[in-house]
């Protein structure tokens, strides 16, 4: 809960904007293009790919806070919409606008997104920090239709910059209390080293690297929209068994058979949706890229872009938190461990290494199902779209009949890759759909 800010200057700034929110004078946010939001989200995906420590859950968290920042920075200029303060966990209040002092919403959003991006990617390279500075300076020059100096005064510019920075600092104050702020670093305070439980069917480190478990406490983080991770449980996985007639055995055998005889199409799907950290903006970044593209194609306005990214990105962040909680609660062993002990002691997945964390459920399945549920609500369940995420890698563009089809392919890609059982894929889809429903149940409008 935000009780106080850490710097006296922040307290003073907050007082400037502490009058109860009312309709703001000036042009509304929907009078401007999507450029400020889509440009900052584009840069964030590049930073996510290039900044140390940004594994998939960490990227989803960063995008979640950037989505909240985009929305809250302009919501006072969106007639009929309301803040998420009081709805998201422990977010009790945020800076409010003066009813008689107009703001320029592109300037507010630019200052807010620049400030939050710097704080979220504080360990970015010097070159990438320079890119953040450059984007903040260049947007008013690049998008003259949104930043026409003839439509607002220097006083409004200064006030808008101050409000935008204040909003980002307030949201970051909240972000620092979620449990994930230090979780990705080399040390986490007050935490003993995680020791995986032992026993039949339990997860253990996997070849070839036998790496230590990734983010074992991530599931304890505070979610955005879920009241707790228990709000969206995955179905119980099948009971571990080495009996040839058991569900567990048959699903493991399916992984082994597909891996040894995958079709060219299945191999392409596995690689297309791998979204490896360091090489891509990760799975959450993939779906954020899709949404950003659609906003540009549709020529969405600033308000629409902000409302889209907040819903999509907090859904994906909560999907990773809920999924990670289930992973380390169930601690199901990976297919490579089962297969080597039951079918083929020399087998390893041929397309990619098994990630260093428990199997159940498939994180791709949880996150993709959450993303598709949100985007289906925003853009339409039967809308065809083109995915350009991997065009620069020579793997696109690809067109899908709807978001659900893309999410199903992303989920099954992990089975084709040899790193998830079918029950892990299907259990993740159930959990992800629940997360989407919880996010879509938030109140964004007065009516």
Can you describe what's shown?
The protein has 447 residues and is mainly alpha-helical. The chain folds into 2 domains: 8-175, Vanadium-containing Chloroperoxidase, domain 2 (Orthogonal Bundle), CATH 1.10.606; 218-440, Orthogonal Bundle (Vanadium-containing Chloroperoxidase, domain 2). The protein is 50% helix and 1% strand. The chain has 14 helices and 2 strands. The protein has helices at 8-16, 35-50, 56-74, 105-120, 126-142, 154-175, 247-260, 264-272, 282-297, 302-330, 335-342, 363-379, 403-416, 422-440; strands at 385-387, 398-400. A two-stranded antiparallel sheet has the order 1-2. Helix 13 (403-416) packs antiparallel against helix 14. The two termini are 27 Å apart. The model is unreliable at 1-24 (pLDDT under 50).
Write the layout of secondary structure elements.
Blueprint lengths: L7 H9 L18 H16 L5 H19 L30 H16 L5 H17 L11 H22 L71 H14 L3 H9 L9 H16 L4 H29 L4 H8 L20 H17 L5 E3 L10 E3 L2 H14 L5 H19 L7
Antiparallel strand pairs: 1-2
Helix pairs in contact: 2-3, 2-4, 2-5, 2-9, 3-4, 3-6, 3-9, 3-10, 4-5, 4-6, 8-13, 9-10, 9-12, 10-12, 10-14, 12-13, 12-14, 13-14
Keywords:
Vanadium-containing Chloroperoxidase, domain 2; 2 domains; mainly alpha; 14 helices; single chain; 447 residues; two-stranded antiparallel sheet
Give the strand tally.
2
- How many domain modules? 2
CATH C-level class of the largest domain: Mainly Alpha
**Strand ordering within the main sheet:** 1-2
């Amino acid at each position: 809960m935000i009780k106080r800010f850490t710097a006296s200057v922040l307290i003073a700034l907050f007082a400037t904007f502490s009058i109860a929110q009312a309709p703001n004078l000036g042009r509304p946010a929907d009078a401007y293009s999507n450029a400020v939001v889509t440009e900052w989200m584009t840069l964030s995906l590049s930073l996510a790919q290039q900044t140390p420590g940004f594994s998939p859950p960490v990227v989803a968290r960063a995008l979640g806070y950037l989505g909240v920042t985009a929305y809250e920075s302009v919501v006072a200029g969106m007639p009929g919409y309301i803040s998420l303060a009081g709805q998201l966990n422990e977010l009790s209040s945020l800076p409010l606008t003066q009813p008689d002092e107009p703001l320029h919403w592109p300037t507010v959003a630019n200052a807010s997104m620049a400030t939050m991006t710097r704080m979220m990617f504080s360990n970015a390279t010097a070159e990438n920090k320079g890119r953040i500075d450059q984007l903040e300076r260049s947007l008013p020059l690049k998008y003259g239709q949104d930043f026409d100096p003839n439509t607002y005064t220097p006083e409004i510019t200064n006030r808008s910059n101050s409000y935008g920075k204040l909003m980002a600092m307030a949201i970051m104050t909240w972000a620092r209390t979620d449990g994930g702020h230090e979780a990705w670093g080399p040390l986490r305070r007050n935490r003993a080293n995680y020791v995986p439980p032992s026993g039949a069917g339990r997860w253990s480190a996997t070849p070839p690297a036998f790496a230590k478990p990734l983010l074992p406490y991530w599931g304890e983080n505070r979610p955005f929209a879920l009241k707790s991770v228990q709000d969206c449980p995955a179905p119980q996985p099948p009971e571990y068994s080495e009996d040839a007639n058991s569900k567990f055995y048959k699903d493991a055998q399916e992984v082994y058979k597909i891996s040894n005889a995958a079709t060219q199409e299945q191999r392409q799907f596995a690689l297309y949706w791998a979204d490896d950290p360091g090489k891509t903006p990760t799975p959450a970044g993939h779906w954020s890229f899709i949404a950003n593209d659609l906003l540009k194609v549709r020529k969405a306005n600033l308000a629409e872009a902000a409302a889209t990214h907040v819903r999509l990105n907090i859904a994906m962040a909560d999907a990773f938190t809920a999924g990670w909680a289930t992973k380390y609660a169930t601690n199901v062993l990976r297919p490579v461990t089962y297969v080597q002990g039951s079918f083929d002691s020399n087998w390893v997945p041929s397309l990619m290494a098994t990630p260093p964390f428990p199997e159940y459920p498939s994180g791709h399945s949880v996150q993709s199902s959450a993303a598709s549920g949100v985007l289906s609500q925003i853009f339409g369940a039967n809308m065809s779209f083109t995915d350009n995420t991997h065009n620069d890698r020579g793997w696109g563009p690809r067109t899908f009949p709807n978001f659900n089809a893309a999410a199903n392919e992303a989920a099954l890609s992990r089975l084709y890759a040899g790193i998830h059982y079918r029950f892990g894929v299907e259990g993740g889809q159930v959990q992800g759909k629940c997360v989407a429903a919880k996010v879509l149940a938030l109140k964004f409008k007065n009516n």
